Amino acid sequence: MKSLNVNISENNYPIIIESGLILNIGDKIKNIYSGEKISLITDSNVDNFYGESVVASLQNKGFNVKKIVLPPGEKTKSIENLTFLYDELLDFTMSRGDLIIALGGGVIGDLTGFVASTLLRGIPFVQIPTSLLAQIDSSIGGKVAVDLPRGKNLVGSFYHPKAVFIDPQVLKTLEERFLYDGMAEVIKTACIKDKGLFDYLLELNSKEELFDNFEEIIYRCCDIKRKVVEADEKDTGERMILNFGHTIGHAIEKYFDFEKYSHGEAVAIGMYAITKISEEKELTSKGTLEKLKTMLVKYKLPYNAKVDNIEEIFDTIALDKKSSGNFLNLIMIKNIGEVFIEKIDKAYLKEVISI
Ligand SMILES: NC(=O)c1ccc[n+]([C@@H]2O[C@H](COP(=O)([O-])OP(=O)(O)OC[C@H]3O[C@@H](n4cnc5c(N)ncnc54)[C@H](O)[C@@H]3O)[C@@H](O)[C@H]2O)c1
């Protein structure tokens, strides 16, 4: 078992990482919640594997549980499901003293967190992230949101959970493509802040070894995210470093209509593209790009894409939220584990960008 504490202005909360934790989640919840009523929100994939045992474990500890199951996938993070959940929770006469639990990947975590932050002006909630991306990234940091038809995460708030409970064992049932998708964010974390983790990942030789080491890997990623969030709770500065590979990555996702590449794959291509530029500009030490490529290939991630119209990619990048006037703040690495923010002239970027 490993644990961390997130120290933010309004409250502190624990992140507990423990293999097999999900089987006695009732005990864990009992330690942090003295009420009786719990609404558990999940999706049907996660429900198939863990819904029954989680409900049983909570009921064994005397909790009165209502389980709400939504369809899986990004489309679930909608305004329609928001109002659906408000109704379900109010039908169960949830009050501000009760507890909501998010059991699932980033979609369920973001949606449930936003419901919890807004219903009755805020009901306490707990995150039990079940995808790798949710365990190392989305469950930490308090960003909760739903999508609008015109874009992702356009309605949201900052609302931290009471606790985050992570069971690395549940990753065994995650589809392979989601596993490697999450690995892209693990690699990003290592690239920006943890050379030791990068080397450690390179040494693992099989999927079995990866699973044997997940507790440590997740712990290190959560610790880095926790520190960055503590330094910049509301995402106005330092937190930008978490976007390494994301500016170009988002443009790639959009260019291919969010169909060809998953988020993680697009971030992988983005990390490689930006490091190619920074290494050519001698802002990054020679050989870093090659190390990154070795890592991406090892974890079944792409490092380039066939883009016919690079202009279109550049146009999307130019509209990025880190853009100001003729310049763009881009996240780069000096070496593995050493991140920095570089102000780049858009005209220069247009000249050198290649995917
Ligand atoms: N809040 C944040 O800071 C933050 C950060 C990054 C991403 N996000 C959001 O996270 C979302 C993506 O999250 P995601 O990649 O976890 O997607 P997801 O929630 O859709 O989960 C991926 C898939 O895996 C399934 N699944 C999850 N856990 C499983 C398990 N243990 N066993 C079997 N199947 C399982 C889900 O049903 C789903 O089909 C996006 O909406 C993104 O905007 C939020």
Automatic annotation (TrEMBL):
The lineage of its organism: Bacteria, Bacillati, Bacillota, Clostridia, Eubacteriales. GO terms for biological process: amino acid biosynthetic process; aromatic amino acid family biosynthetic process; chorismate biosynthetic process. Zn(2+) binds at residues 185, 246, 263. This is 3-dehydroquinate synthase. InterPro entries: Dehydroquinate_synthase (IPR050071), DHQ_synth_AroB (IPR016037), DHQ_synth_fam (IPR030963), DHQS/DOIS_N (IPR030960), DHQS_C (IPR056179). Its cofactor is Co(2+); Zn(2+); NAD(+). Its EC number is 4.2.3.4. Gene3D superfamilies: 3.40.50.1970, Dehydroquinate synthase-like - alpha domain. PANTHER family: 3-DEHYDROQUINATE SYNTHASE, 3-DEHYDROQUINATE SYNTHASE, CHLOROPLASTIC. Keywords: Amino-acid biosynthesis, Aromatic amino acid biosynthesis, Cobalt, Cytoplasm, Lyase, Metal-binding, NAD, Nucleotide-binding, Zinc. NAD(+) binds at residues 106-110, 130-131, 143, 152. It catalyses: 7-phospho-2-dehydro-3-deoxy-D-arabino-heptonate = 3-dehydroquinate + phosphate. It comes from Clostridium grantii DSM 8605. Transmembrane segments: none annotated.
